[in-house]
Request: fold
Amino acid sequence: MEKIGLFCCSKSTRENRCASAQCLNNINNRTGDFQEYSDEKEIDLVGIINCPGCPSEIPPDRLSSQIKSLAELQVNKIYFSNCMNSCCVFRYDYQAIIERDYPDIDVFIGTDKELKGNSSEWIITRRVIRFD
Ligand code: SF4
Reply:
């Protein structure tokens, strides 16, 4: 059983009204990078949390306490959202901090590596889907 936590960009949630739908779809329907899981493998999305905010706004050490809430749910894998993969310049720093503080948790950046670098296109696409 894979116990998954999803870690999302608070700015995307707040300013782009991202509901994490693409990432949730990948997890629930085994699309994107979740195609790699065999049908027999059980996947349980146990929690979702936003990042603490850009480090210029919020001290980056807040990250560990955010992640603690997922760790307490016994997740063994944390996936960063696709918008973090596309937009967040701190993603690798965040990954390093999580791997340092929670060595039993594997960290993956994005739920679909095909979308990397397409952030604005992806957000526009999401809006078209949302309002049509
Ligand atoms: S730190 Fe990264 S993930 Fe968090 S709000 Fe800023 S851009 Fe988004």
